[in-house]
Amino acid sequence: MIKKEMIAMLLAGGQGSRLGVLTSDVAKPAVAFGGKYRIIDFPLSNCINSGIDTVGVLTQYQPLRLNTHIGIGIPWDLDRNNGGVTVLPPYERSDNSEWYTGTANAIYQNMRYMENYHPEYVLILSGDHIYKMDYEVMLDFHKENKADVTIATMPVPMEEAGRFGIVIADENKKIQDFEEKPEHPRSNLASMGIYIFSWQVLKDALLELKDQKSCDFGKHIIPHCFANEKRLFAYEFNGYWKDVGTLGSYWEANMELVDLIPEFNLYEEYWKIYTKCDTIEPQYIAPEASVERCIIGESSEIYGAVIHSVIGPNVHIGRGTIIRDSIIMKDTVIGDNVTTEKAIIAENCNIGDGVVLGFGDEAPNVLNEDVYSFGLVTIGENSTIPSNVRVGKNTAISGETSREAGDYPDGLLAGGGAIIKAGDRK
Q: Cystine design at 147: which of 158, 233, 295, 361 (Cβ 3.0–4.6 Å)?
């Protein structure tokens, strides 16, 4: 009989619509971060660093790249005969076939996977946060308090508390009340979407709420456990944690990596972040190039100036080009005499000579002003920008664009504009 003290269920099926064209063809947890990593690397690395060797990764939206990246789990030492990492997409059963319709519904549909390991505890994780956490310490807290459910929490500014699930706890951290995105929060202790359940408590709750439409942990499972007088405790976390769910927070988290004293350190020896690495050549910085406060990926060739930016692997930056406060993902070619300011350029793009990205004043985006804001230029993967065009702030581009097709009247895409070519999602 296979028996594990604690297994992890990693929710990685989200579309990440607030990242706009960056997630048109890729699940949010598979988006590149920090040059060489992908977002899902962080919770996976946390698991193996915490001694958890059995992880179910629940995928749904655009799973191909995520599945390829995870493979059999070798980079994270999760290629195990007994446990290891298992990708769990929705599947067809004899009675019905359905997509995951909520975070808890996704876990419920994989009840058989969990039961296979007879766990005492189940750790529920999200695949789209940047942080380092020792889940073993959280488990010790769970055991010490004889908890049924432990919720990882962190203090947030009171004015931001209404954006989160908020817990009200006593001096012993026992939860007295739970409010999902309250209009008038009574506490600033926010749920991080990380839970440890005693297995029987989780199993009972999932079975009792199996007919709940779009069953979700924050909206349904946690309130259900609270209403049934289970012992709920708040584990307070005070380290770095970032939800990179918007273009602004994603850009900001990357830029923090290249600060003089980074708030989040990728290079700690005792808590490594692991990822799938290709065997490619070293980077090349030309004699005429200049690089200041940057991350530069392997096999990149730099001939211009790169300032306070994150550059992925196998990126070419041409002569006379100035890249500032930008994120350039892998396999992208930037031509000569290009200027970028606060741009996010996804994988496998081609930026022509003389292009200017991020000029002028900000304007509301015509496509979605809530998504495409923060003064950023956002370019989706596999996009082409023709030479000598200028692109303003709060703009979005996806697909093969050209001047001949009338995409850039007078060689310009003004601030707040968008070009989404046929077949690309918004």
A: 233
